[in-house]
Amino acid sequence: MKQDSGYYYQGDTNNGKMFYEILDDGFEIYIGETAKYPTFRQREPYIPNPDVSYEENAKNYCMSLSHKPDMIDKEQADQIYATVEDMTNLRSDIDYLMLLNDADSATEEETK
What we know:
about 110 residues, four-stranded antiparallel sheet, about 35% helix, alpha+beta
């Protein structure tokens, strides 16, 4: 039987309330009152915290899903992820180093 967790998915009431159901070997999380199928399922041996009950795990799981993911700004993203320009430069550097390593095998087309 589904039980109300008291949380909304990503903290937004428009996303739907989360419910959980305790199984013999784990739990299932449903988003929305009318959901027929679980959105998340955790079963043994993959229970997040085996030191507490399935019900406590289900409640904690719902609580973790109720937080909206943090977004990063462009400046942070530029520091973390490679840009197209970075990848192009990296490819050029690799080609150049390979050419230096084995210059005899380079074709005329590669050296132009």
